[in-house]
Design a protein that fits this description.
By secondary structure, the protein is of the alpha/beta class. The protein has 5 helices and 5 strands, in the order E-H-E-H-E-H-E-H-E-H. Strand 1, helix 1 and strand 2 form a beta-alpha-beta unit. It is globular and about 45 Å long.
Length: about 140
């Protein structure tokens, strides 16, 4: 199937910054297509986003991050990622998956964030079937 499928390896970075990872990433860089992560679960999401973008810049990789995989309208990781990508003029591809929280923002904030995502060139991968399950995982019945 090698003439039909491209396999891309994305390494999930830790939510807590560990300096040993910088060296590790250098060692395996040639095997990677992008750096992944789940900054919305990090104790310090902005620092986690900054660190992942720093590493991706240094290694010439894109990023593929799980973002705001929650119904909590206070989750702002997509906004923070967008701000960082725009501030840095980050040159590599950026993918944000899930982005569920934006559905619970008020309309004005949704529109502002959507425009910023477009300006930053961030690709969104919505995962509706996955999120229907995941966002209902704490419910005692199907919603």
């Amino acid at each position: 199937m090698k003439d039909k499928i491209d396999v891309q390896l994305v390494l999930m970075c830790p939510t807590e910054i560990d300096p040993a990872w910088s060296k590790f990433l250098c060692e395996i860089r040639d095997n990677l297509s992008a750096l992944g992560g789940v900054p919305w679960l990090a104790a310090h999401p902005v620092k986690n986003i900054q660190w992942i973008l720093d590493q991706a810049t240094r290694l010439g990789l894109g990023v593929d991050l799980h973002i705001d995989e929650t119904l909590d309208s206070k989750a702002k990781t997509l906004q923070w990622l967008t701000d960082e990508v725009l501030q840095r003029s980050f040159p590599n591809p950026v993918v944000a998956s899930h982005v569920v929280a934006i559905g619970n923002y008020d309309n004005a904030i949704q529109q502002r964030v959507a425009r910023a995502v477009q300006d930053a060139g961030i690709h969104i991968v919505s995962l509706p079937q996955t999120n229907c399950y995941l966002q209902g995982r704490e419910s005692p019945y199907l919603k």
